[in-house]
Design goal:
The complex is a heterodimer.
Chain A: H1 2-25, H2 34-51, H3 56-78, H4 83-103, H5 119-130, H6 140-167, H7 170-180, H8 182-187, H9 192-217, H10 228-241, H11 247-262, H12 267-284, H13 292-301
Helix pairs in contact in A: 1-6, 1-9, 1-10, 1-11, 2-3, 2-4, 2-9, 3-9, 5-6, 7-9, 10-11, 10-12
Chain B: H1 2-30, H2 37-54, H3 59-88, H4 94-114, E1 119-120, E2 129-132, E3 135-138, H5 139-161, H6 163-173, H7 175-180, H8 185-211, E4 213-214, H9 218-233, H10 238-258, H11 266-280
Helix pairs in contact in B: 1-5, 1-6, 1-8, 1-9, 1-10, 2-3, 2-4, 2-8, 2-9, 3-4, 3-8, 5-6, 5-8, 6-8, 9-10, 9-11, 10-11
The chains are: A mainly alpha, B mainly alpha.
């Protein structure tokens, strides 16, 4: 029971990570830097909790904020460059942070951060003080895990809702315009650098929050949790789930997380499957499983929303 | 001391340059970054390892074997991850994603096959040391540096003096025009990808020789270094890749020698320069192409 709750919790965190890559991709940029931002968020949250004793509801947003603050100058410096440059520069950023975390004393070097306050354990202790026994016929530990899942799901839901809202706003239309044709968008008076940095920083914030949650869900984080494989994993969520609708990365995260639990014993096998899926999806279905056209189609069939044909296919990856 | 570190740096830098040339050649003809190149490098090293340690062959056949193995893998790469995408005319991020995927598959297949631990790679080489005044050069260093230089000179000659080289340059300049003039573009692309991969494979064997070990996970770090080098040298620029590779190698050696407190950060040196260059001179130290800020 607790095991399934934990898997579901990690699916929610992965969904947030997928959304963080999706945001940047929705301006037509491919980032491999969100693993680095996740590292920043995770270590910030962990250190604030261990060293300064901050409560978890403060450390997680602090991690996200720090990641976003770092993302602004980094994005401003690299986003005026072409797509390939951004992918390389952000990969370099991630890898540099891994090297730094491996060498600093405060981050615990290669051994990582240990004894990070655990969200479920904290909740459990708090609940024991308030309730005589857990409701719903669960044990206290299970109930605490259930609450952790609900918190993670709420964070994912909030991020999803904000992204959908933003997508329908001036900002979202600017993102789409930039993804479709950056030069044309610029000619229409859209400040492309501003919007690209905005998406980059938003993505960094989400990745930082996910990193902070990750730190408080496990007792331990190490530098190698946030390297190249992590960066690629987030990208796979989007590539498989869908690059042009926010539901895509969430679906991708759920499917691939479930799959990787199934392949839990063999980490290398899981990565082989991820790699193969990336090659296959790009070739067979470059927009991912979910596409905007499908959504418009379903809405029409259900008699919801405007009765007009689906908007033109986005650029996708 | 300084000269000694310079030599050590150049030896290491030579292998970086070979890797970087691979990226830059492919970028030249296809305008894409082959993210699987680091793993091609690793497979080259592994083929060399198998020939020396399992079959007892010498250095030269191992080097040739590594290059041939990597070149064949390059052909696989071209047919599985690149050609089909070109035909469909998808966005410029697609080949980035598909080559990342292929790299992931190659690395983890190798981990399944050979484990992730380093494997000892001992090539029968003289253990003699050449002394030139204060300089000491081991036989290994001389071989690595010498082979890298010879390969680079051969490549330069191929590109500038042969029909194949002329065709490669024509396709880099403008593929459509080259096709109109009767160049077999897809053949040239295949040849370029195989050539680039062969150089990567040679670099893999040389790195294995100089560190006396190979591993299934060696591709990632070196692949990233190579990426930093081509940004430093300017994308698509072969001489820039050579100069950038040697420069990064020397800078790393100096960091370790003169900044002992920072020696753990050796692997970050390349990326610090990468950022500086991207901010100050995004076309690279030696690039003239002012259009890097344009979206391709």
């Amino acid at each position: 029971m607790s095991y399934y709750l934990q898997v579901a919790t990690f699916i929610c965190i992965s969904g947030i990570l997928g959304l963080s890559v999706y945001l940047v991709l929705s301006t037509g940029q491919l980032t491999l830097g969100n693993a680095g931002f996740m590292l920043l968020g995770g270590y910030t949250a962990g250190l604030l909790a261990i060293r300064l004793g901050w409560p978890i509801w403060l450390t997680v947003p602090a991690g996200g904020l720090l990641a976003a603050v770092v993302a602004v100058p980094l994005g401003a410096a690299t986003l005026r460059l072409r797509g390939v440059y951004l992918a390389i520069a952000t990969l370099g950023f991630t890898q540099s942070l891994v090297v730094i975390a491996n060498n600093l004393t405060i981050t615990g070097g290669a051994l990582g951060l240990k004894d990070i306050p655990n969200l479920a354990a904290r909740l459990q202790r708090f609940l024991r003080g308030v309730l005589a026994e857990a409701p719903l016929g669960l044990t206290m530990a299970q109930f605490a895990n259930l609450l952790v899942l609900l918190i993670s799901a709420a964070l994912l839901g909030l991020a999803y809702w904000l992204i959908v809202r933003q997508g329908k706003s001036r900002v979202g239309r600017a993102f789409t315009a930039i993804r479709t044709d950056e030069v044309a968008a610029s000619a229409m008076g859209i400040n492309t650098t501003y919007y690209k940095v905005l998406a980059f920083a938003q993505g960094a914030f989400l990745a930082g929050v996910a990193g902070g949650m990750m730190a408080h869900l496990t007792y331990f984080i190490g530098p190698n949790d946030f390297g190249f494989s992590r960066a690629v994993e987030m990208l796979v969520f989007v590539v498989v789930g869908g690059t042009a609708v926010p539901a895509g990365p969430v679906l991708g995260a759920a499917l691939l997380r479930a799959l990787s639990e199934y392949l839990r014993e063999a980490k290398d096998l899981r990565l082989i499957v991820y790699g193969g899926l990336m090659m296959l999806m790009v070739l067979v279905r470059p927009q991912g499983l979910l596409t905007p056209g499908m959504f418009a189609g379903w809405r029409r069939r259900l008699g919801l929303g405007p009765r007009r044909p689906a908007p033109g296919k986005g650029a996708g990856a | 001391m300084f000269l000694q570190q310079l030599l050590n740096g150049l030896t290491q830098g030579g292998t970086y340059a070979l890797i970087a040339i691979g990226y830059t050649l492919i970028f030249g003809v296809l305008e894409i970054i082959n993210m699987a190149h680091g793993e091609v490098f690793m497979i080259g090293a592994m083929v060399g390892y198998a020939l020396v340690m399992l079959l007892g062959w010498g250095l030269v056949p191992a080097l040739l074997g590594g290059m041939i193995g990597a070149a064949l893998l390059g052909a696989v790469l071209e047919f599985t991850a690149l050609r089909a995408l070109r035909r469909k005319g998808v966005s410029n991020l697609a080949p980035l994603i598909s080559t990342i995927g292929l790299g992931m598959v190659l690395q983890n297949l190798m981990i399944r096959f050979a484990g992730a631990e380093p494997l000892p790679f001992r090539v029968p080489l003289s253990s003699g040391v050449l002394k030139l005044g204060p300089l000491q050069a081991t036989a290994t260093q001389l071989v690595v540096l010498g082979v890298s230089l010879v390969l680079m000179i051969l490549l330069q000659w191929t590109l500038s003096r042969t029909g194949l080289g002329r065709a490669v340059r024509a396709v880099s300049e403008n593929a459509e025009t080259a096709a109109l003039l009767g160049v077999n573009v897809s053949g040239i692309v295949l040849a370029t990808v195989m050539l680039a991969s062969a150089l990567g494979g040679a670099a893999g064997v040389l790195v294995g020789v100089s560190f006396v070990s190979v591993s299934a996970v060696m591709g990632l770090g070196y692949g990233l270094k190579g990426l930093a080098v081509i940004i430093l040298g300017g994308l698509g620029n072969v001489s820039g890749a050579v100069a950038g590779g040697l420069l990064i190698g020397v800078l790393e050696a100096m960091t370790v020698a003169y900044g002992e407190a920072f020696s753990g950060y050796k692997d970050a040196v390349a990326f610090i320069f990468l950022f500086l260059i991207l901010v100050v001179r995004p076309q690279g130290l030696f690039g003239q192409n002012a259009a890097v800020t344009r979206r391709s």
